[in-house]
Amino acid sequence: MDFDLFIIGGGSGGVRCARIAASHGARVGIAEERHWGGTCVNVGCVPKKLMVQAAEYGAWVQDSHGFGWNTQAGTHDWAALMAAKDAEIKRLNGIYVKLLENSGVTWFFDRAIFLDPHTVQVGDRRITAEKFVIAVGGQPAWPEIEGADLGIVSDQAFELPHMPRRVTLVGGGYIGVEFAGIFRGLGADVDLLYRQRLPLRGFDHELREGLADALQAHGIRLHPSVLLHRLEELPDGSKRLHLTDGRSFDSDLVFFALGRTPNTQTLGTEAAGVTLAPNGAVVVNAQNVTSQPHIFAIGDVSNKMNLTPVAIAEGHHLADRLFGPSIRTWSFDAIPTAVFSVPPIGTCGLSEEQAAAHGAVDIYVAKFLPMRHTISGRQRRTLMKLVVDQATQRVVGAHMLGDDAGEMMQAIGIAMTAGATKSDFDRTIGIHPTSAEEWVTLRTRTRVTPHTATL
Questions:
Q1: Which candidate among 287, 295, 345, 386 keeps its CA 20 to 30 Å from the CA of 83?
Q2: Cα(303)–Cα(314) distance, rounded to whole angstroms?
Q3: Is the pLDDT of residue 12 over 70?
């Protein structure tokens, strides 16, 4: 065989797996057909976070007036932001390649397609390997409506030549709410349409309600419970999106944020004997093994927990298990996550509804206007919530909507991974004056949610 391990996909998970396997002495090859670093570095987490930060500055100018600053709002240079974003991505692309080279990994910048369970075609080469890892991630989903190609999906949002002045965003998931905040913060009129009654399906219900209020306070127009009919282009180049109820929305840009699908269409999984789920995801067991015992899948392509740090952890753990003398472990029970909405969300563990399905829970909630905004005048309220298992008093869920939510939730995740109880939170001294101290001063129980048995 040409390699002990061959990895298809040069995203964060694939590159980590390659580097760790090579560090254990394995002969490792990796192929990437589009861009090193995958979705997160190129058309996901990194450029999106930069755009979120860019969108915050306009509000900060206004907020500064309450603190005595005579600052004046300027105009935003979209081209300058895109150039800065591109420069940072190029820098990160280079780092990924250098990491592979320094680790002794052989890399190929081309598409890899399975020819049989132990062979892939990479460009004009046939390559064999003892083991394979599928780490090809996912791609944005398109709606099945007439004229869908007149809109865009998230990949294209990072390459827009001009800042749109009117945006119709379709989708209430994290991509939709984040880009709604980005475009609104940069000055666009934004309509956000989604099928559910509230945005962020699957998140804690109280958090979802708080986010809906916050988005509207930010000037984003919400349109819940909608179904798409068709999209057309008007004579002036603008777009008109028609709904099944007869309503329509005119804008400069229609942005579909309808989730993502596993990127397995051209992988040759049938030739490899790898089983796919109906949605195209690679079927794996708890150890990331596919239907072929020597082929594994990590990251978004398995559609388990679509987060970059999870893909990295899966890749590292798999490389250790296959080639290393010892195995580093991760906790996947309470994974802290963030949504960079306006304001941002941080969450870890179970929602109130999920926790109540396992037993009665004590709920602690605080809602307040942070110190900064008592002076700025901005009605940007914070919500903080702890979900506590009543029988054991372990904190099984933590949820926040407010400034620095993602930063705080990383530390909360450590406590929850260590099995912290409500009394552990209570006996921790707070840092004053901060919003974070509210986590350790939530003394009064807000309510008890009884065991519901089912979600």
A1: 345
A2: 13
A3: yes
Given this model, what pLDDT does residue 329 score? 86
What mean pLDDT, rounded, does the chain reach? Answer: 96
Q: Name the pairing type of β-strands 295-297 and 125-134.
A: parallel
Per DSSP, helices labelled H in 357-421 are: 371-376, 405-417
Residues 58 and 132 in one domain: yes
Question: Are 109 and 133 part of one and the same domain?
Answer: yes
**In the annotation, is 294 catalytic?**
no
Q: Are 26 and 157 in contact (CB under 8 A)?
A: no
Residues paired with residue 112 on neighbouring β-strands, in sequence order: 122
Residue 284: is its pLDDT beyond 90? Answer: yes
Rounded CA separation 248/255 (Å): 15
- Among 162, 229, 294, 432, the one annotated catalytic: 432
Q: Which structural domain range is residue 414 located in?
A: 337-446
pLDDT of residue 326: 85
**329 assigned to some structural domain:** no
CATH number of the domain bearing residue 217: 3.50.50.60
Give the three-state DSSP class for 330: coil
Integer Cα distance of 77 and 421 in angstroms? 49
The CA distances from residue 146 to 121, 151, 233, 252, 310, in Å, are: 36, 11, 11, 18, 36
Using pLDDT thresholds of 50, 70 and 90, give the confidence band for residue 414: very high
Q: At 132, phi and psi to the nearest 5?
A: -130, 150
In the predicted model, what is the mean pLDDT of residues 377-384?
A: 95
* Region at 137 (left for phi over 0; alpha for psi -120 to 50; beta for the rest): left
Which band of pLDDT confidence, cut at 50, 70 and 90, is reported for residue 190? very high
Note the pLDDT of residue 328.
Answer: 84
Model pTM greater than 0.85?
yes
Report d(CA 224, CA 94) in Å as an integer. 42
> Which of 334, 349, 350, 352 lies closest to 452 in space, CA to CA?
352
The reply to whether 158 and 199 lie within a common domain is yes
